Amino acid sequence: MSEFTPTESTLSDLLRRDPRAEWIARNRLHPLHSSVVSAGQGEVRGPSGLLRKNPHVIGFIGPNGIKRIDRANLSAAGLNGKKRAGEAKETQLPLHIVDNPDGYIMVVADMIGGRLTGHDKDILGLAHQLVGENKAAGKGSIAVVLVCFGESKETQFDLAGVDRLLHITGQEFEGFAPEARLSALMQVEAQYKPVNWLFPDSIHGGTDLACRLASRLGERPATQAWQVTASNTVSRGASGSRDISRETPRILMLMEECANAIEDTRHQVLDLAFDADAVETGDDYRLIDQGQIEVDSNAVPLAEAEFILSAGNGIHNWDQFHAVAAALRATEGASRVAVDDGFMPRSRQVGASGTWVTARVYLAVGISGAIQHMQGIGQCDKVVAINTDAGCDMVKRADLAVIEDSEAILDALLKLAQEHYLSKEQEKSDAA
Amino acid sequence: MPPKVNVVSLVSVGRHPQSGRSRRAEQDGRAVELGLKLSKKSLTVVHAGDSQEPVLRQYAGMGLDSLTVLPQAADGDALPVLVEFLKNSKAQVVLTGVRAESGESSGMLPYLLAEQLGWPLVPRVAEILTIKEGAAEVLLALPRGQRRSVIVSLPFIATVDNAAAEARQTAFGPGLRADLKVLNVESVTDDAMATWQISAAKPRPKRLKVVKAKTAADRMKAATAKPVGGGGKVMKNETAAEKAQAIFDLLLEEKVVR
C-alpha cells in the first residue's frame, strides 16, 4: 500500500516561452521588432512630443557589478515570458505510505553516537529493495522497521527510509548489554515474526548481536553479505577470498555499501508498539559492564581517534595546549604550520601529507583552515573552531565557532575539564 | 593468577592474505598466546579438522607439549564434536579467534558453542586481567582503540581480537617434536554448505558518485562550491568563560568527555 503524491505545482508557476516573440526580438530587421521589444516598457514622450529614451535604464548590472548593455536584446525575450516563481522553494519529497503492513523487515542499527551511520542507511536502502521485490512477487506490503537501543539524536529518520521505529530505551540496554538487547530482540521476534532481520556486519556491536540472535533462534545467518536479493545472497567467506552464493536466509549481516541509501522518498516513521518493560530482563546476566576504561589518548592512532584537539598557528602557549589535551583526554593533532615550526612531530599532522582523520569531534584551536587541512577533516562529524578571525574557512566549516584568543579559551576549558573529572572522582569515592 | 584455570584454545588453519597459503591464523595465534599467558600448564589447544595439516606444527611450535585434534573431513561441521569435547573436558575458559580465515568464516562457532553449552560469551577480548572466585575481569577491544572492562562468570567463551598481544614466534623443531593427540571422533558433514555455490571472490563494484543536479548551473555549483558546514553557531561577544562552557557542553553532549 504505498502511494506517491506528486509535488504540487500549479500551471501558473510554469515558465511559458513564446518562441516566436523571442525570434522577433533577436531579429532587429524584423518589422515587428521595435513593438515586441518595447512591449513591456511603453514609450515615453517629452513635453514637445519627442520620443525620449532614458539612458539610465538601458542595460543592467552584470554579475561582477559592471553595467552591461544588451545590444542584441537577448534578454528582452525573457520579459515576454512569465518569471519562474518559487524556484528556490524546497522540493517536498514524495511520502512513502505503508498502511497495515503484512510483514516487517527489522533493521537493527548501530547508531554510533545516537545517529544513523552511513552503513545503517545503506542497510535501510537494501531493506526497501527487498520490500520492492517482495511486492513484485505478490507477497503483500512490508514495512521497514528500524530497531535501535539507547539514546537517539537522529532527526532525519524519515529521509533515511524508516517506515516504523522501534526505539527501545531503558537503563538496562545502555552501554555494553548484549544479553539485555538479545532478550529484547527475542521479544520483538515473538511479537512481530519479521520477514528478515538485517544487521550491519560491523565492529560496533552489530555482528555480535546478530550472532547471538542467530544462535538463539538456531538459524544459519549469512555473514559479510554484499549482494542480496529476495531469493539469493552472495557473501564473502574465507577471510574475503571466496564468494558464497546461497538462498537468502532470514538473518543477514551486511557489509558496507551493500546497497544505495534512500534518497528520493520520505517515510512515515510511526512508532511501533513495543513494551520495553515486558522484556524478560533476567537477573542472571553473566556479563557485568564495568564501563569504558581510560586509555592513553595519545597512544590511539590519529587516524582512528574519536576526539582530536588540534593546534595551529594561533597557539602561543604550547605547555598549556598539552595540558588541555591531557585534561580533556583528547588525542593531539596539528596543522602543517605547527609541525613545520617544530612544535609538534610530523606524525601528528592532520590533512594532506599528514593523516586523514575520522574523529567524531574535532576541536581546532588557532587553525584557519587551509584547503589541505580541510580535506583531512572531511569525515569528522562535529568540528569546533577557536579562532580570532571570524571570516576564516574553519569557522565556516565549524558546527560551533568561538571568536577569541586561544589562550583565554584554553585556560577556561582546562579549568572546566579538571573540575569535571575531579567531581567524577569524588562521586566514585563517595559511592565506594 | 591462580594456576588452576583450565583454558582451551581453539585453533584453525589460517590463510595468508596475499599469497593465499595456509598459515597460523592471526587471531587464533593470539588466542593461544593469551592461553599461554593465563596458564601454560593447563592449556589445551584443540583443532577440529585434518590431523595431517602441517600448520598445526606452527601452533605447537609456540611452546606447546601437545595438541589435540578432532579429525574431521574437509566438508565437516566442527560444532558437534567441539560441543561434545568441551562438555567432557573441565574447561573453564575457551578462547577462539573472532573469525576463521578459511571456510565460511562466519564467526558463528563461538556463539553456537556458547548457546549449546549455556555459557556466556565475551566478544573481542583484548586482555584477561584477573580470574578469581569464579569470575574473570576481561578487557574488550572497542573501535577507535578504546577498552571496556567486563566481569564475566566462569566458565565462559571469549573471542580474541586483533588488539590482544601478538602471537609469539613459532619454533620449527619443538613444533615437530610436539605430541599430536588425535582423538577418535565421528566426522559430521555440514549438509547446508553442500548446497552453496562457492567461487573466487569477485571484486566489489566501486560506488559511483552520482551527480543529482538537474541543471548545468547546479552542476557548476556542486563542482566549485567549497565544503561549508552551514548552520554553524558562531559566538563572538560572550565572555571567554561562556564560550568555553559552550564548547565543553558540546563535548559532554557528544560523550567524548565522559
Summed up, the domain count of chain B is 1
Strand percent estimate of chain A: 15-25%
- Mean pLDDT over the full residue set of chain A: 84
The CATH topology of the largest domain in chain A: Rossmann fold
Distance between the termini of chain A: 57 Å
Enumerate the strands of the largest sheet of chain B in spatial order, edge to edge or round the barrel. 9-8-7-10-6-1-4-5-11
As a percent range, the share of helical residues of chain B equals 25-40%
- DSSP, total strands of chain B: 13
Could you tell me which chain pair has the largest interface and how many residues each side has? A-B, 84 and 77 residues
Head-to-tail CA distance between termini of chain B = 32 Å
Number of helices of chain B: 8
Q: Please bin the fraction of helical residues of chain A.
A: 25-40%
- Named at the architecture level, the CATH assignment of chain B is 3-Layer(aba) Sandwich
Low-confidence stretches of chain B: none
**What is the 3D shape of chain B?**
extended
The computed structural class of chain B is alpha/beta
